[in-house]
């Protein structure tokens, strides 16, 4: 699953982009010294074999340094149909389109595209970050920045939260831009994930409560911050008329850049799918525009305890 830029340019011409209406950044006023944004994101929860999830964590943090904590699979307020936590663990994969990004008197110019993969660890603990993609980061390696492994991302669409294809399916693609060749093309960008999805009337497999719980978990930071037991809260608020959660169902395909620290032929998440292709069929997520507040790093116990209950 290696992405060729020239092919993407041809395919994109066949689509027109849409997105949820971009909601206002209504939290900046109350969080003047913190980073805030209008976050128009899509999230999916994908059950992956536990052994593969643990292997991805071992690669990211070191063998045995972070172990999985099951989510309460028998809690019907989270899993209406239950969840097989003996063999699988849900991973949270996201596509991000942020705008109106502010910190104090400063405002970042233009929108910011991104995405990421992390692992919910229980519902009251801290989530484990595998990697983040951003359109404004280093390309040649997984760069450790402020406790997160960041990669330069390439996104389709490149100007909206998602796009509607000719077959009326919504989609989003993220890749790791390893090598750019703007002069003669093509470049080299292994795929991290593909989303193909449609809207649905209501949640079925999971609940809004579960999604709010896992996306608002503090993230365990990496590198020196991991040794110092630091975590960071990124709170998302979906609790007013401008930030409605829209349930979606569809397929998630993980590619070679879904996890790991360097360039590889297949990722752990990809190999763990039923046929080894990375395709995970018929999973549930949601899309919506909420207000985001990024807090400063703090002790992980304090970060878990300080999650803003009004975001849940």
From the structure above, extract its key features.
single chain; 312 residues; mainly beta; Acetoacetate decarboxylase-like; nine-stranded mixed β-barrel; 6 helices; 18 strands; disordered N terminus
Describe this structure in words.
The protein is mainly beta and 312 residues long. It contains 6 helices and 18 strands. Strands 3-4-6-7-9-11-12-16-17 form a 9-stranded mixed beta barrel. β6 (112-119) and β7 (127-134) form a beta hairpin. It is globular. Residues 1-20 and 137-145 have low confidence and may be disordered.
| Sheet having the most strands | 9 strands, mixed, barrel
| Count of β-strands | 18
What is the H-and-E element order? EHEEHEEEEEEEEEHEHEEEHEEH
Mean pLDDT score, rounded? 83
Strand order of the largest sheet: 3-4-6-7-9-11-12-16-17
| Helix vs. strand class | mainly beta
Beta-strand percentage range? 35-45%
CATH architecture: Beta Barrel
Task: Give me the number of helical elements.
Answer: 6
CATH topology call: Acetoacetate decarboxylase-like
Distance between the termini: 37 Å
The first-level CATH class is given as Mainly Beta
| Approximate helicity band | 10-25%
Gross geometry: globular
How many domains comprise the coordinates? 1
C-alpha Rg (nearest Å): 18 Å
């Amino acid at each position: 699953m290696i992405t060729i830029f020239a092919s993407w340019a041809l395919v994109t011409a066949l689509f027109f982009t849409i997105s949820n209406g971009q909601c206002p950044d209504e939290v900046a006023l109350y969080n003047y010294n913190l980073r805030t944004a209008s976050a128009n994101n899509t999230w999916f929860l994908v059950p992956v074999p536990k052994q593969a999830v643990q292997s991805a964590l071992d690669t990211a943090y070191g063998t045995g340094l972070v172990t999985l904590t099951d989510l309460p699979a028998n809690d019907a307020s989270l899993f209406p149909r239950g969840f097989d936590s003996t063999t699988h663990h849900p991973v949270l994969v996201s596509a991000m389109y942020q705008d109106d990004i502010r910190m104090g008197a400063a405002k970042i110019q233009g929108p910011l595209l991104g995405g990421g993969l992390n692992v919910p660890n229980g519902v009251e603990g801290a989530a484990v970050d595998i990697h983040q993609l951003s359109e404004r980061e280093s390309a040649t390696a997984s760069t450790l920045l402020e406790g997160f492994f960041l990669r330069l991302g390439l996104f389709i669409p490149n100007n909206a939260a998602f796009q509607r294809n000719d077959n009326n399916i919504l989609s989003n693609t993220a890749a790791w831009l390893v090598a750019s060749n703007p002069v003669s093309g093509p470049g080299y960008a292994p795929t991290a994930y593909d989303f193909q999805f449609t809207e649905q009337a209501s949640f079925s497999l999971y609940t809004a409560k579960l999604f709010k719980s896992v996306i608002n978990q503090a993230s365990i930071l990496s590198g020196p911050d991991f040794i110092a037991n630091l975590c960071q809260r990124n709170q998302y608020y979906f609790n007013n008329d401008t930030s409605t959660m829209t349930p979606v169902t569809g397929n998630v395909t993980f590619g070679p850049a879904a996890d790991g620290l360097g360039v590889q032929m297949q990722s752990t998440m990809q190999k763990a799918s039923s046929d080894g292709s990375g395709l995970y069929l018929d999973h549930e997520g949601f899309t919506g525009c909420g207000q985001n507040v990024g807090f400063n790093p703090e002790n992980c116990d304090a970060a878990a305890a300080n999650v803003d209950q009004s975001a849940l």
